[in-house]
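Changelog-adjacent note: as of this version, every example in the card shows the full chain rather than a window. The one below runs 283 residues end to end.
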Amino acid sequence: MTPIQSQGSLSPIYLIHDLAGHIDCYRDLASALGPDQPVYALRFLSDPQAFQSLEKLANSYLTDLRAFDPTGPYILGGFSFGGAVAFEMARQLEEIGKEVPLVVMIDAWIGVADRKLRSRDQLSILWEKTKEQGIPFLASKVRNKFVSSAQKTLHLFLNLAGRIWRGLHLEPPSRVRLALLEKANLRLLRAYEPRVYRGPVLLAACSRKLDFLRKRDDHFFGWEVLAGQQFEICAVDAEHMSIMEEPAIREVAQRIQEKLTAPEVSLGPIALQGEGRESTNLN
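Full-length structure tokens:
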């Protein structure tokens, strides 16, 4: 367990690494939460082939967490892949009667949410957003598409290199090991089928991605299993990577603090928190 911010009098928040096993993405979040909020993070240290399911990975992390903090309470969270692992850890803790005041999932998705819209619907949303936000929005979409395509090509090459290195029984370079880890974690995430969890959950999701999901009548980011429970979506004006940076991460930190400082207030039915902080009941 690595301390991001070890000082403070509040109950610590434990964050799980992202898809690539990194935890540096949580430094801006720790800073936004303030000096009185301890923040610890768990980075990936094992062989990426060691776990056959996300459930087993979460169970292994729980063993490490409870060795570090035997009593709790356990406030869990994570970005992207880490959010899904944090959710599964909380579900397993609930099974054994341990307290989890809050699970924070930052732009976390699961395999069922990875379905693409029809081209007609994608173009419709693109046109609507371009009319609203102008050329800067269109330019950002083109830039993000180019970066995404380049990353996919690079990962294909690195995974091929990894297979060659392993076939020769050689230790792959760090860049290749990273690509293999991302591929292994992505496999776990796509196969994961979450079960019902009754505790409080805050999902901070990119508002632009939520627009796409609403087009196919998916208001829950793939987490329909939580419908009707203490599950809240906070829409943040950011892209997947920029949600962990200023100014977006400050909004995420504010929502976390609101939940943790008002425990007597029930989260109630699923709600979508958008701009202006207006709630819409989706039930």
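Structural remarks: Residues 135-167 form the longest helix (33 residues).
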